[in-house]
Amino acid sequence: MTSPTLRCLVVDDEPLAHQVLAQFIGQTPGLALAGACRHAMEAHEHLTQHPVDLLFLDIEMPLMNGLSFLRTLKHPPKTILTTAYREYAYDGYELAVLDYLLKPFSYERFLKAVARAQPAPPAAPEEAHVLVKDARGLLKVPHRDILYVEGCKDYVKLVTAAKTHLLHETMKEMAETLGGRFVRVHRSFIVAGAHIKLLQPEQVVLADGSVLPIGSSYKPDLLAWFKK
């Protein structure tokens, strides 16, 4: 999934700064130049009519300096200061600007500043798992590692290729936890569909060679599930 394009406004009284920033913005994926203004009044008019996502703002400009202009905005866009003067750094960060680019700056430094404005990629969804206790503490057992579950009175066996875990759960609770990728084949067995190698009249054979019985009352649902 691609990130949305950030609309950028350059506010600077120096033509060279406009040229450099326009070039940097143009060659950076995810950025688009929405406008360029020479002073704060022009920028205010632009923002009133055309909101932007990212503001590249000079400080020393005629009519009103960049910091004063930024203070006038009720809802300022994300802002990166671009200036030749180091002494304004504290004021900039007090206004919660994203970064402070000291002229002249390189494209690499520009990219570092821009990265602060771009949304972080969404976190990958956590893999489905079952929490079990072992000697080391709580362990996450991914659903994909589970071959089958066997019910044993007051607990269940969670069987993987590497190890068998014991849980104080009912078969009904395990079926609800594991969801649609698992199928109940017997009152005492829940099987991972991905690991079924062979379906026989009275039993299922798993990829690891395990052979499990099929309960007569579960056969219709198993056949329907297997034909999906």
UniProtKB/TrEMBL annotation:
Where in the numbering of this chain does the HTH LytTR-type domain appear?
Answer: 130-228
GO molecular-function annotation terms?
DNA binding; phosphorelay response regulator activity
Q: SMART domains, per this entry?
A: LytTR, REC
Domain Response regulatory residues, every copy: 7-118
- Which source organism? Hymenobacter nivis
Q: Does the keyword Transport apply?
A: no
InterPro entries with a match to the protein in the record: CheY-like_superfamily (IPR011006), LytR-like (IPR046947), LytTR_DNA-bd_dom (IPR007492), Sig_transdc_resp-reg_receiver (IPR001789)
- Record key words, sorted: DNA-binding, Phosphoprotein
Q: Which residues carry this modification: 4-aspartylphosphate?
A: D58
TM region positions: none
Task: Report if keyword Phosphoprotein is assigned.
Answer: yes
What does the record give as the organism's lineage? Bacteria, Pseudomonadati, Bacteroidota, Cytophagia, Cytophagales
Q: Which domain of life is it from?
A: Bacteria
Q: In its UniProt entry, what is this protein called?
A: DNA-binding response regulator
